[in-house]
Amino acid sequence: MRYPRWFWAAFGAPGYAWLAVLFLVPFYVILAVALGTVDPIFRFPVPVWNPLEWNVGAFEFIFNGLGPGEQFFVVFVRTFAYVAIALALSLAIGYPVAYYIARHGGRWKAFLLLGIVAPFWISYLMRMLAWVNLLQDDGYVNRVLMWLQVLDAPRNWLDGRASTVILGLVYGYVPFLILPLYAALDRIPRDLLEASRDLGASPAQTFRRVTLPLSKAGILAGAVIIALPMFGDYYTPDLLSGSPKTNLVGNQINLFIHGPQPTVGAALTVLLMAMLAVLMAYYLVSTARISRVDER
Amino acid sequence: MRRFVDWWRNPWGKPRFLAVFTFLYLIWSIIPILIAVRFSFNDGRSRSTGQGWSTRWYWDEPELSVKNDPSLREALFQSLELASLTMLIAVPIGVALAISLTRWRGRGSGTARFVSLFPIVTPELVMGTALFLTFVHLFQFVELGTVAQLLGHVTFSISFVVIIVRGRLLSIGPEYEEAATDLGAPPMKALRLVLLPLLLPAVVASFLIVFAISIDDFVISQFLSADSSTETIPVKIYSNARGAPTPALNALASVMLFFSLLAITLAIVLQRAVQRSRGGGKTGVEDMAEMRL
Amino acid sequence: MSGHPREARGLDRREFLRRSAAATVGLSSAGAFLAACASDEPTGAPVGTGGGGETTAAPFELARKDNPVTLPLYDDNPAIASGLEPEAGPLKIYNWIDYLDKKTVKKFDKEFGVKTEITIFNTMDEAIAKLRAGSDFDVFFPTPDRLGKLVAAKLLQPINLDYLPNVQNMWPELQSPFYDVGSRYTVPYVIYTTGIGYRTDHVTPPPEGFDNPYDIFYETNYRGRTFLLDDYREAIAMLLLRNGGTDVNTGDEAQLEQVRQDLLGLTDAVNVKVSVLDYTLVPEGRAWVHQAWSGDFVSAQYYLPKGVDYSVLGYWFPPDGKGLIGNDTMAVLRSAKNPVLAHEFLNFMMDNDNAYANFYNFVGYQPPLTSLNPDRLVADEVVPPHLDTCVVRQEDFDQGYTLLELSPEVDALWQNIWAEFKSGA
Description:
The complex is a heterotrimer of chains A (about 300), B (about 290) and C (about 425). With about 300 residues, chain A is an all-alpha fold.
């Protein structure tokens, strides 16, 4: 590049500055609150800015609750499980759709993509409320299932079961998975696939040995885009369940922040973000090679 | 019917299973939207049982319709205002950031990339709480309300712009700019006259996505709202849904849907027109999908 | 009243006036007797330790029935002067959801030529957090169990009773209640009890058929349709009562530990859920057993689906009156930009007709008006006969247990139990 070294770095200066002030600093605030104290009357958080005065009571409280069967352990394990299952289901649903649009979309590509993206345009809450509606005892889900004779009697989907919450998560996040998957699949040059067929591979083998590996970056990207925010989701369990047995980390953070020990809520947030940061870093490092190959 | 049978039997045709699967997925995805819209035209008070058709919840109903209920109207304007402003601020910042990240090779670029992309994967609950605490304890000169909400929206929108624009940048490659500079153009001019036009579809896509995300945002808008006049549509829906809402809520969401579809259609039409004069290229819709982390 | 559920019952304006007249005219002998026997003027020595259970001294005083509290006045937080003209508004009200009748508010708007904005909060903690963070609401609806904190943090401004002659319409005990002697900061709004709401057509036997009626929550037949109120004070208090406790503001660790285990056991037994939508969930049949507020069950009849009769709604409250009872209050915030108008609003809402209209049209929660004869509510078909357990009477206040302010340490104990319960462990 002919441009001076600092040119490109400086080009992004407004962006870096914005993110530093309004993204990084708030994280420090959370840290200061997690390691801070509470005011005696209201028990509202009082952040402590000086690291030398930090008080680790909140973290102690959490570690005490991390033993098997204790409240934080149960919630973290449950959240992991739900996210993992929802991710797997989303991939199972999203990959075929992305594949179809990328490889066989043809003239309809833009139209189909619009259909995928359409759910973004109506409020997520509205869609979830529509589902609550559909899942009621006399709702369409029960009616259809009984008509298909899968069920004999209406099942109470909203009685606080994990499957409803997981399906809600899948429904809400799957569009976010399809887009990056589609992007990755679309990028695979057709000639590679033709070459594979020319060399005698069957469609299934082509898929397994050419398409799938080349789409790995897309899968990882999509997984990161949906799994990480899912860890902080709290309104899906709220709307679709309401039972403590399906509460996720997000629910507990919300409860603590607005309740007895906001320091604990902030500390939980810190732990959650540390975990997510590790996952994100792992993703970036492991795909650094792949994206360098992609860049011409 | 005959065409369908032919299609089904065509041995050279596209995979049938995948086609049907995609079709079913789209139906599953869109049905709740259709239901929500259907009940917005309900003639009764119920949001779950069909009671005829009417537009009362949009304008007729004297106190409760979207047109006549000031709190619903305010929510609509607040949502549109926030989304528009967020668009105008986040996209330029994000485009510059994307260009910087893709071209910058020096030390610290990895960290910069990490920080730029982290907002996307940060759960909104975390962002909302962090920003709330920040505006209450640290940046107290920023009061809760529209300004705070705007700052929050822009912050997480920037990352979306980055991944969309980066996708396009990585496909374009550096050759065009290099050619321009070889021919004697100074860096900024090469950028302006060569790169930006090539990026246009991605920029349009960014505008659309930021608009959609800002309009749909719930957590950050709620945490940073001051009073009912700064509540956006999703916040209104959430707080009303906890009580006993009327179909006016569905009507509100449908109005939002309408505006968004309008925006997308305009964008696509404009793009097609521009591209026809230029010749070829991807549309913004496809660019929306071409994301790169 | 187009579109209002009341329409179906064929009530028109003439009917409404006739019934409200019947209810207001003629105090029952019981009512008059009690009015005459209003509780003693409290001597109110401000310092004192409360009833058993509280631990160390709180930074503010904890009001109890036997320890009335005169809330402190501060020099830097004065009340407004008398005789001022109301401001131009808009009046900003901060309230629970569905807790004010829109028509009554409109009437206020017309009378004073102003606009009113209502902002909703979901929980008292959330509301206090927003108030602390800075806001400019005028009118607030605090519960007595937060008054000590609110006053100590100077979030409320003292009210000037010269603007509030209608406070005379309220029950004498509530005109100068033990939690706010002299009504320095609050005036009463509505009264209610907390009992068990249920579907008579699905729940047999009803709570009274159990040896310990509160055991109905553990009935596994109703698994998935059992709800507690999403309020840690109400839920824990009800379980304390189930165990035979008599102090619903206790900090006694043994009792609280028992409740903690009971709560976790409830999750295992019936996958209990939490909500505050008892007035829609029970009529819709999504809940069969729901800890509920009395006012919600009065209005629940309007959320019944077509064709379902209100006889399916049942509400149980201890017949001896030893259950949870409480009242909400109205207050003016210190940050109010329209304090005079706010006072006028409070006065307006305590007017006999307005308070009754608020209750009757929409809210369902009873106002403590001396002119409102509770016994007539059933006779006048405001409340269905089998739901007369929802009606609150003055004598209930003497027997019942009220949720009052906890010291911060005890409050933390309660909230920690709730957090653990909510984690589904």
